DNA sequence: GGCTAATCGAGACGGTACGTCCCGTCTTTAG
DNA sequence: CTAAAGACGGGACGTACCGTCTCGATTAGCC
């Protein structure tokens, strides 16, 4: 009835050692200086053990992402009841991360990995909260009538994340006030916000 | 008085052959299968001739961009007097390009190259019109009072381009109506647009 | 008094499957393309079952030899009463075998295996009749006064076999008449043979 | 008219370093523990530089032989005017060499290499004097009427060398007197030698 | 019949070496 | 002095096997 399984079972120790080594080296040296041989050596593992389970280094990175070893798994905005302030808080948090050289090269490396491997892209997108934490915050805002209930939340989310990516790729500096201006752009300036109920 | 120059001068034929070979191979096989040796061979040129003038393959790609060999040099929105329609037209044009496999992989390769090399990033940013053609259109719109004169045009531009990049990296499909929704997000829905003057 | 034995006993089926697979692969691909993994797979057997009973691939080949799976177990000269003719017949038989590509590569593989593993060497030597069938024929020849009773039979035997090995290793062609010339060399030319008794 | 040659020329330093490293490692660890990577490392050379000029490790070994780095290039019998004594001297010299463990494993390694690669075989054959020095000695012996002028010298030579190879492969000990007995076998016992002229 | 071993197939594991692809530098010859 | 050609030392690739080590299943003697 059930699937036959024979032979030794996959070693969890090796799996973890590999992912941890990958995360360590990725953070230390960036995506394109990451090598399978380096990971194997760092993890104390044969190369074949890596190739047995992952097809490429980008798949390795994707798995690290999935396990939350490169970024906090749910990086979303807070909910203080004030959607504009919460989004600004969240953006500023991210801006601060990427303002540091290490944060910048980490994100650029992730972008490079995502460009190369669809899986990394999908997981990075999920990780960055664009689908989960951020959307939840918008739904809460709709429920609280902070924003219109027909607001295109996916587009709004991407209009917040996207500029970050663009600035990083173009190496444009992120000036003070950028977060506020972005939130104003996507939610509309305060003065033209939706009318309060009643 | 003048600089003394002896011996053969830099060969323009070689320079063009190299850039054309780079563009050809980049389009055909993508950024990370592009090799200096491949370019040298394709261009019928010695490797040293490439290394003499360009420090890396990403610099080569950056130069191709600058010469408009990878993307049209000025890809900007039209100006029909209707900023919303013009932006939608422009976005849909880009969306159509990246909906084709070749366009998608071209852009993803450019993103990867930009992530790896600051120069490519800067030039790509300029190329994509985010600073020039797009900003000019916004200035025209301000002049025509189509949008507020204190609108943060850089942020608006990036809030239009950014989501494209995010969708490509995350491999999210671009659904019909996305362009309209994005324009609505960044300019505000029509009904709450700025009041007509007077 | 006797050794205690518990648990499953050695599988004769596995043993035979392994030896047969070894012989098959050895003949097909030669000694140095023979792999334990290949034998295990071909025999439908786990690798450990091979390692449990044989220490190395050359031991495997030695066992195949011992079971006569690679060469006829007793390849010796006939006895028609004419020692010279019998030796020529025997040599020509061998020469014909090694003239075919398959025979040549089989023997060269065996030589390589023998060079690598003393056991293979000893068993091959025995197999090739140099100690048994050939010596028996010489003893018969001595009994029949065909050759001197103090003839150094081991040296004579090796002086017949050795040139074959040398020709194979040096890839010298074996020309017609070689067998006769060799027999003449080791037994002395007919005209100067030992005087008939009486 | 002449062949065009452009680009850097082959480095003699690299060639020598590689051959010397090969000879050193071959002598130290034997043919089948010899690795291309080991040679490259020992020679301080990139692997590709080896693969550019030699197709396999056995070709490397063959070249070492050709340069006389593994064996003296002309290992032949002396000429004191007494062919039997000279041959015995020569054989005993070789027997002494192969009686030492290092000599034995060197020769066995050469045999293994010869079995694998025709070129090694041919060059080894030439090196061992079977074609040159030994044949010259026989010709001198014929000229001096020490042996019959129609003696099959190639067969005689191989009937001397061959048994050595057979003993090495079969790991039979070489007992005292073997050289004499072999010479007796191939030249005939003294008592039945050719009649002195006159 | 249950217990204890040993064997079997399968195959994962840490390794070593393979032969290939490119890197960026250096060397040679032609123009 | 530039350019083509291409050899060089080096690093990583992805693959093939090595010999060892689990696994779960099966098989035999012993209580």
UniProtKB/TrEMBL annotation, chains A, B, C, D:
Keywords: DNA-binding, Transcription, Transcription regulation. PANTHER family: HTH-TYPE TRANSCRIPTIONAL REGULATOR RUTR, TETR-FAMILY TRANSCRIPTIONAL REGULATOR. Residues 35-54 bind DNA. InterPro entries: Homeodomain-like_sf, HTH-type_TetR-like_transc_reg, HTH_TetR, Tet_transcr_reg_TetR-rel_C_sf, TetR_C. The keyword DNA-binding applies. It comes from the Bacteria. Residues 12-72 form the HTH tetR-type domain. Signal peptide: none annotated. It comes from Leifsonia stereocauli. The keyword Cell membrane does not apply. This is TetR/AcrR family transcriptional regulator. Pfam families: TetR_C_11 (PF16859), TetR_N (PF00440).
């Amino acid at each position: 009835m059930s699937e036959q399984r024979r032979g030794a079972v996959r070693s969890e120790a090796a799996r973890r050692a590999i992912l941890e080594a990958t995360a360590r080296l990725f953070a230390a040296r960036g995506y394109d200086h990451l090598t399978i041989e380096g990971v194997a050596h760092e993890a104390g593992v044969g190369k074949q053990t890596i190739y047995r389970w992952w097809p490429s280094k980008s798949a390795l990175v994707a798995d690290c992402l999935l396990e939350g070893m490169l970024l906090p798994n749910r990086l979303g905005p807070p909910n203080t009841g004030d959607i504009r302030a919460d989004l600004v808080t969240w953006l500023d948090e991210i801006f601060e991360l990427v303002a540091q050289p290490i944060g910048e090269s980490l994100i650029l490396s992730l972008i490079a990995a995502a460009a190369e491997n669809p899986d990394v892209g999908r997981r990075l997108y999920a990780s960055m909260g664009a689908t989960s934490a951020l959307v939840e915050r918008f739904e809460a805002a709709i429920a609280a009538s902070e924003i219109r209930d027909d607001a295109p939340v996916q587009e709004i989310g991407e209009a917040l994340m996207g500029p970050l990516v663009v600035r990083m790729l173009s190496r444009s500096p992120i000036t003070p006030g950028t977060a506020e201006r972005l939130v104003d752009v996507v939610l509309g300036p305060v003065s033209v916000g939706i009318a309060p109920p009643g």
